[in-house]
Specification:
Number of helices: 8
Low-confidence stretches: 1-8, 26-34, 36-49
Structural class: mainly alpha
Strand content: under 5%
Radius of gyration: 17 Å
Distance between the termini: 49 Å
Oligomer: single chain
Number of strands: 0
Mean pLDDT: 77
Largest sheet: none
Shape: globular
Length: about 160
């Protein structure tokens, strides 16, 4: 059992190290701007094209990641995205990770992650908090009325 635990921790550490290395790689400014614009346009238009994470996906800059997260959370709050769709968008557009890698990172099975992203099953709050934690999010209550939600947001 301890060997399995160590190997899963190593794979998570490998993922984190891989992400750090990708950020440090020198890439052309033009390529980064082009990729950032495509990602931002996809999020801003609310298009739900079938996206996949790949090895060719360049990491998003911190400022751009924050904008993407905020836009996705806003769409989630106003009911434009389901919880599963939001998680998938965050995983792909912010981290650029495949399901199996992200599942190891957050310590859930790939099937559980897939079920959540496809809005299948009923998962407890602790599991949902695990999968949203890398984005600084957790499950909570929101008003069902968009008027009440707008009122709350306008007051802050």
């Amino acid at each position: 059992m301890s060997n399995h635990t160590n190997s899963s921790k190593e794979s998570v550490n490998d993922v984190v190290n891989h992400l750090r290395q990708n950020r440090k790689q020198n890439t052309s400014v033009q390529q980064i701007k082009s990729d950032d614009k495509v990602k931002a346009d996809a999020v801003n238009t609310g298009s739900r094209t079938s996206q996949r994470a790949s090895k060719k996906t360049l990491p998003t800059k911190a400022a751009e990641r924050s904008k993407i997260v905020n836009q996705i959370v806003k769409q989630l709050l106003f009911g434009e995205l389901t919880q599963g769709q939001a998680l998938k968008e965050l995983r792909i557009n912010v981290l650029g990770l495949k399901q199996d890698v992200y599942a190891k990172l957050v310590d859930v099975s790939r099937k559980t992650l897939s079920d959540i992203e496809n809005d299948r099953g009923n998962y407890k709050t602790d599991i949902l908090n695990k999968v949203f934690k890398p984005f600084g999010l957790k499950v909570g209550l929101i008003p069902s009325s968009s008027n009440m939600l707008n009122s709350l947001l306008d007051n802050n």
